[in-house]
Amino acid sequence: MASAAAVLGVDVGGTGIKARLTGADGLVLDEVRVPTPRDDPRAEQLAAVVGALATQAAERAPLAAVGLVTPGVVDETTGTVVLAVNLGWRDVPVGDTVRAELRRRGIDAPLAVGHDVRAGALAEVRAGGPALARGSVAFVPVGTGLASALVVDGHVVPGGGWAGEIGQVRITAGPHAGLRVEEIASAGAVARRTGTASALDAVRRVHAGDPVATAVWDDCVAVLADALAWTTAVAGCHTVVVGGGLALAGDLLFDGLRARLTERLVGVRVPAVVPAQHGDAAGAIGADALARHLLETGVLV
């Protein structure tokens, strides 16, 4: 029976791919991380990587389904990535390309294609229990780029694939006017603007009192708070779940966001700002959930 087979969840990030193989009971059988292919405009290299991961997974357990999630504007109904700036994709039929590679390898498992942040939101809300099952919840992973997902009464809002692209909004005033939000408020931006290998290296410099790193960090938190304030005001979020690499900064990030949201949301309910439970594994866990739902019902979530 389908429920007795394993599922492979694959999360394509800007710099790395996370794959997670789970058994029928949901227990993790294997986890793999590999680099994301570069200069791959038609996703052919990605298809080869996913095919290899699926082949390895099938050698370990009968593979019933594969879930694949990517960044960008994703049309889940067609499996097309309409636009993914960080991967250089525009109107790429990722689903068809990966399915063809799976078939070439003799793997007949159904493939569910989704959006990494919306899938991660699904995973986080399900892990959050009754408190997150009702009302509006925003999931905001702050990593290489910046996007968000809105979950209302347990259902993710897709917006035809366009919902949640808060990182692509252009800043219109102040010292960063003309730049997109994610060019200031993302882990990738913090690392780039401080000249460090990672955002966490920049955080260490902030704790050490480095003035350049401190200024970059303050810019990041302020611009991120602006985006979250508008999201909260429009959607009435009672909780904002923050994940991605920047969430590892801990209190430096969360205390700063809470304070700035309180300043901005005058006369509006200030949401609880909490760290993601799944860390950077949320996307892969969400991909697993999409694959299982497709397997059980024949449709995407």
What is the compact description of this entry?
This protein has 301 residues and is α/β, with parallel strands linked by helices. Helix content is 39%, strand content 23%. It has two domains: 2-118 and 281-297, ATPase, nucleotide binding domain (Nucleotidyltransferase, domain 5), CATH 3.30.420; 129-279, Nucleotidyltransferase, domain 5 (2-Layer Sandwich), CATH 3.30.420.40.
Structural notes for this entry:
The chain is an alpha/beta fold and 301 residues long. The chain has 2 domains: 2-118 and 281-297, ATPase, nucleotide binding domain (Nucleotidyltransferase, domain 5), CATH 3.30.420.40; 129-279, ATPase, nucleotide binding domain (Nucleotidyltransferase, domain 5, 2-Layer Sandwich), CATH 3.30.420. 39% of the residues lie in helices and 23% in strands. It is built from 9 helices and 13 strands. The strands form 3 sheets. It has a 5-stranded mixed β-sheet with strand order 3-2-1-4-8, sandwiched between helices. Strands 11-10-9-12-13 form a 5-stranded mixed β-sheet, sandwiched between helices. The chain has a 3-stranded antiparallel β-sheet with strand order 5-6-7, covered by helices on one side. Strand 1 and strand 2 form a beta hairpin. The mean pLDDT is 94.
